[in-house]
Structures are given as structure tokens and as C-alpha cells.
Amino acid sequence: MSAGKPQPENDAEALRALLEAVSSGHQGSESRLLEVLYGELRAIAGSFFQTERSDHTLEPTALVHEAYVRLLGSNNASWQSRAHFIAVASKVMRHVLIDHARARRTQKRSGGQRVTLSGVLDDQGSEPVDAIDIHEQLERLEKIDARQARIVEMRFFGDMQFREIATVLGVSERAVHLDWRMASAWLRRELQKGRA
What are the residues facing 130 on neighbouring strands? Predict the structure, then answer.
């Protein structure tokens, strides 16, 4: 598909209708949705790999396809908007990466996938951190404050803007900024404790 052709699915209403068609199980809608959102999903997957080591055994394309299969395999999947779908896709991509890291860790019996949090948690000089450690800390944060955990997940794993996160969560952008600051400080502190 050429980038110059106008795509009616770029319209929010048309995309919402396509998401409803996928949720309702209309034939052909799943492949059309992937076609429409593939570029965005691929960009998100690519952003994951900017912080990964260069010899990672999972490629962004494989991550997109594995996440998409898992997304569509979930029963009663229902998405209200593009931002909601992207938020859910980001979470699924995170789980695919964690499953992959755990499998490699088990296979090699050595350290897992390492990522750097530079720029994500406003820590420009941060050292790489084990991806599984990040996942485990997010699970802990989710028990303390589920919304903060979702914000970190959407921002770090989904590369979503504060405005988009606010829309998905149904809160003000200011609330997202405040939660982001608290959650990123908590996450940075907890990850540093683990290194000490």
C-alpha cells in the first residue's frame, strides 16, 4: 500500500467501525485492521528494540505478528478507539518480550534481556536493566496503583503520548503527568534497590 493513497480508515469513525467489526468477528476485518495499523504497531515494536541489545533474537516484525495473534486470540476482545487498541497492543508486546526473555534466560541459564531506561524515566545515564526486572516491578506497582502501572506501560512499552494515555484512561492530561512522575520515581528507586 503506498503512503500517498488516502486511507479512509485513518478517520477515527471508520477506524472505530473497523475495531467493532473485529470485535464482532466479521470475516476479513482482522487482516484489514492489521493492514491499517501495521505501520504504527511496527513503530512501537521498533521503539522496544532501540533499548535492547543489538543481537536480540526477536525482530520487530515477529513481535508485531506474535502480539497481533495474541490480541485476536483473546476472547471477548473489544476496543473503543485506536488509542485503546494501541494501549492493549503495547501490553501484549510487553508480555511477548518478557516471555521471550524468560525462555532465553532458561535456555542460557544466564542474565536475561537487558534494556536501558535512558530518556524513559528521565535518567539519561542509566545502565541497562534486566527486562524481567522491569516487568516484575511493574507488576508490583500495579498492586499499589494500577493506573500508574498502566501509564508507565503505555509510555515505555507503547511509546504513547500523554494526551493519548489520558484519552485511554479517561482522565486529564495533568493527572497523567502527575502519575507518570510518581510512578517513574518509584520505578527508578525500586530498580536501583535491586542493583545494590
Answer: 114
Assess contact for 116 and 131: CB atoms under 8 A. Answer: no
CB of 150 closer than 8 Å to CB of 166: no
Which of the 8 DSSP states describes residue 156? I
DSSP-derived secondary structure letter, 10: G
Q: Which residues contact 68 (CB under 8 A, 6 or more apart)?
A: 34, 41, 89
Cα–Cα distance measured from residue 67 to residue 88, given in angstroms and rounded to the nearest whole number = 10
Cell 473503543: give the residue: 80
DSSP string of 70-88, one letter each residue: HHHHSTT---SSHHHHHHH
Contacts of 77 (CB under 8 A, 6+ apart): 22, 23, 71, 88
pLDDT in tens, the chain (196 residues): 333 334 444 577 888 888 888 888 788 888 888 888 888 888 888 777 765 555 556 778 888 888 888 887 765 567 778 888 888 888 888 888 888 877 776 655 444 455 555 444 554 445 566 667 778 888 899 999 999 998 988 887 777 889 989 988 999 999 999 999 999 888 888 887 766 5
